[in-house]
Structures are given as structure tokens and as C-alpha cells.
Amino acid sequence: MTKRRIAITAVIAAVAIVLTGCSKSEKAAADSFVGVILPDAASSNRWETADRGFLQAAFDAAGVKVDIQNANGDKAAFQTIADQMLSAGAKVLIMVNLDSDSAKAVQDKASAQGVPTIDYDRLTLNGSASYYVSFDNEAVGKLQGEGIKACLDAAGKKTARIVYLNGSPTDNNATLFKAGYDSVLRPLIDSKAYTLVDDQAVPDWDNAKGGVIFEQQLSKAGGKLDAVVSANEGLGLAAVAVLKKNKLNGKVCVSGQDATVDGLRAILTGDLSNTVYKAIKAEAEGAATLAIALLNGEDATTATGSVNNGAIDVPSVLLVPVGITKANVKDVIADGFAAKDDVCKGLEDLCAANGI
């Protein structure tokens, strides 16, 4: 067989595989689409810089139409987007809620129209989602707490003054994060080794409000703090900005979450002590797989877990988070989540010293 014939045969085989694998999806996509509603672009840049692209790519690869919109922190806009998607013929909705009440209203309306919904990243309490795709969020919090303790241990601090800078009180994930880090740190607080100086939630994950709240916490602590247990990098970096003004950055352990470029750079400079990496590409692909199964009227085999939302047990895909310190920032880059050039620009010596 000539090289030309081999090449042609290979192409025909590849096309046959693609057509076989995508035929159902293409049939479903011919007259329907999946709607995705993201929450905002301010609390964390992950929604636009990571989730949107990964979701789009996953549906594109399957030949399924998708409409991805962002509510930009506005609950009324969230509901308007959902109404528009349902009116336009969406057959599945994937949503990251702004709070459970407004998302439940959307799920109830979708359910009445026979449209299944998927909770993405955040669970809608008492909702009616067909599936839930996220990370083990209590485990995320435990990694944050363990990172803070490790930082304090490394500094030789047997006693410590700490504050909790928690996420939005309307986000169930924030509740789970806190449950996780408190489970690690509470025994030390109860034993009086650690003093919990203050414990505050930040409305709507608003980083500006988080900075103001932390400034008040630092004042309450008399300027003497050893650790800030912050629920994500947006809040952690808001705290770092306040610490910098007081020449305390790098002297106080500060946790994060999301492994953003800014967060990873702060890990390398020592302004953040630890963060948590969540493989968002896998999360997005997991949600797309479930949505396509629903679109095709098939049972999903990937939802091997279950989480109770207060009303029902929701079949779930729960991914495993990874704690990040200077020692393994390189792993986030190796995984393709963050680009080395972005993380290391101006920090080349620190990157080299940490194996990047």
C-alpha cells in the first residue's frame, strides 16, 4: 500500500470514528442548545478566563450548540437570562447560582417546562437540579486550614492570632469551605493555642468589601495578626493589599483558592502562604458530558456521587482539589491551567528557585 493510500485510509477511519461518536450529539444539536449562566466576573476571574473557554470547547468538540452568558452579579439579570434561554428553546440549563433562592426560582420554572438543570460549582439548596458538578468543597476548606497551620508551624508559632475572612453567606460553597478550615483549626482555637480574633463573612464575595472588612479586623487585632484564613484569592489578595499598607505582607499567613495567575504570583512572593487548585477544565468537561447526556435522553454514568441539597439527593460529580504552596506551583503550570510566562513575568528568579 502506498503512503498516499495509507493516509487516505487513515483519514476515512478517523472521519468514521468522529461521525459515529458525535452522531447523537449532532442530531440533538440540530434543533436545540444548552444554556449556561455564569455568576459574575468580579469575585473571581476564573468564570471568564477559565470556565467560559473550557465549557465552550467541550460543547464545540461534541458538536453541541451552547449559549454562555454572565449575570455579572445581578440576580434579576440571572433570571432574565434564564427566561430568555428557555424562550429561545434551551433544552438544558447549567448554572452557577448567585444565591439559592433566585436559582431555585429558575430551576422551578425550567422544571415546569420540562427542561433539566445542572448545578455547576455551587449547589442550589432545596432546588431541583438533575445533576451537580463541583469539587469536594469541604475538602477545599480543609486544604486551606492545613495550609495555614503548616505556614504557622514553619514560622515556629505555637500560638497565633487569626481571623476568618469567609465567603458570601448566601453561597453554600462558602459554608462548606468554612466548615473545612474550621475543622482543622477549631481544635487549636479551643485549646487556646490559636486565638480567633474575628470571624466575618463578605457579602457577594465582593473583594472591595472584603478589603474594608479585613481592615476592620486588623484594627480589632491591634495590628497584631499571624494568619488570615480567607476563603478565596480575591479576598486573600484584598487582605494582602491592606497588609502591604501596614508593612505586614509576607509576615502573616494568608490562604487563598482558585490558583489564579495573581494568586500564584503572590504564593511565589510569599504574600499568600497557600491556595487551592481546582482543575476547572475537568469540571467544565464533566458538566458538558452530563448536559449532552440529558440532551440525548440518556442516563449519565459519570455522576457516581450524591449530595443532598435539603430537598433531594442530587447525583453528583465531585472532583478532588489540590493544596498549593511554593513547592508545587509548578504543578498548576504543568497541568496547563496557568501559563509560565504569565506567572513568572518579573519573577524569573523566584520561578527558577521553585523549579518552574
Automatic annotation (TrEMBL):
Official protein name in the record: Unannotated protein
One GO cellular component, as annotated: outer membrane-bounded periplasmic space
Main location: other
Molecular functions (GO terms): carbohydrate binding
Alphabetically ordered keywords of this record: Signal
InterPro entries reported in the protein's UniProt record: Bact_Solute-Bind_Prot2 (IPR050555), Peripla_BP_I (IPR028082), SBP_2_dom (IPR025997)
Keyword Signal applies: yes
PANTHER family, sorted: D-XYLOSE-BINDING PERIPLASMIC PROTEIN
SUPFAM superfamilies given in the database record: Periplasmic binding protein-like I (SSF53822)
Record's keyword annotation contains Methyltransferase: no
Record PROSITE patterns: PROKAR_LIPOPROTEIN
Domain Periplasmic binding protein span(s) in chain numbering: 36-298
Pfam families: Peripla_BP_4
Subcellular location: Cell envelope
